[in-house]
Each structure stands twice: as C-alpha cells, then as structure tokens.
Design a protein that fits this description.
Blueprint lengths: L1 E17 L6 E14 L8 E13 L3 E11 L2 E12 L4 E13 L5 E10 L5 E11 L1
Antiparallel strand pairs: 1-2, 1-8, 2-3, 3-4, 4-5, 5-6, 6-7, 7-8
C-alpha cells in the first residue's frame, strides 16, 4: 500500500556540543513531537501522537542525521528508523526511513520510503513530508 503524510514537528528538547576541530562543527541530539498536517486514516485508526529522537553531526549546518520514530494510532503503533543528510544552505533534510516494529493492528508491518524536512514557521518548528510503501 502506497502512503503519503505530512507532519508539523516541534523540538521538545535539544542538546548541542561543539567538537572544536573546525569552525561550527557540532553534535546534537533532538527530541521532537509531531502532529499531522495531512494524512489518511488507515487500518490502525486515528492519529494519537508522534515522537522522534534524532542525532545530527553538522559542520556549518550541513551533515548526516539519523534517529528513531514512534507513531501511535488509535489501534496500534509503528516504529521506524531513519537516516538522511541536511543541507545547511537550504536548511532542507532529505533521507530514507524503514519500519522495524508494529503493535496492535500494525503488528507485522513492513515499510520503507523517503522523507523531506523543511523549516517551519518558527525556529523550533519543522515540516516533515514523507512517502513510501507499507505491507501488513
């Protein structure tokens, strides 16, 4: 089944450490919570919550990122792992995601796809657009 969704993400926690090996090299861990902007209700029912934990290694705003996400629905949850790259000039991140666990009506789910993260309306807000294939 092919699916698309968009979420508004808000940073709920951010820790940043500077490496000091070159200008503006930092390691960050972020926690974000999200709510749907656009999504289609599926077999697991209505959206309940979304949380992700991300790790970024950036030099002048650019660099790799990776992390984990849990999205909870009325009748089940899906867990995914993602990795991508952020472009400091455009402030856009692109990457891939893959499910690794499901519960409730999403038990046994497999899926993978792509994502794009762009800046939101405030400094702690982002817009996540994702698409991919799922199988139950």
């Amino acid at each position: 089944m092919k699916r698309k969704a968009s979420y508004k993400l808000r940073v709920t926690r951010r820790e940043c450490l500077y490496v000091h090996d070159e200008a503006d090299h930092s390691l960050m861990i972020l926690e974000l919570e999200g709510e749907p902007i656009e999504y289609e209700v599926g077999v697991a029912g209505e959206f309940v919550s979304r949380r992700s934990v991300n790790f970024h290694d950036r030099i002048k705003g650019s660099g790799p990122m990776q992390g984990y996400t849990i999205t909870n629905f009325q009748y089940g949850s899906v867990y995914s792992r993602f990795e991508g790259e952020r472009d400091g000039n455009t402030r856009v991140s692109n990457g891939t995601w893959k499910t690794y666990k499901g519960t409730g009506k999403l038990a046994g789910i497999t899926g993978e796809g792509t994502f794009r993260v762009t800046a939101g309306e405030s400094s702690n807000e982002f817009v996540l657009d994702m698409e991919g294939q799922y199988e139950l």
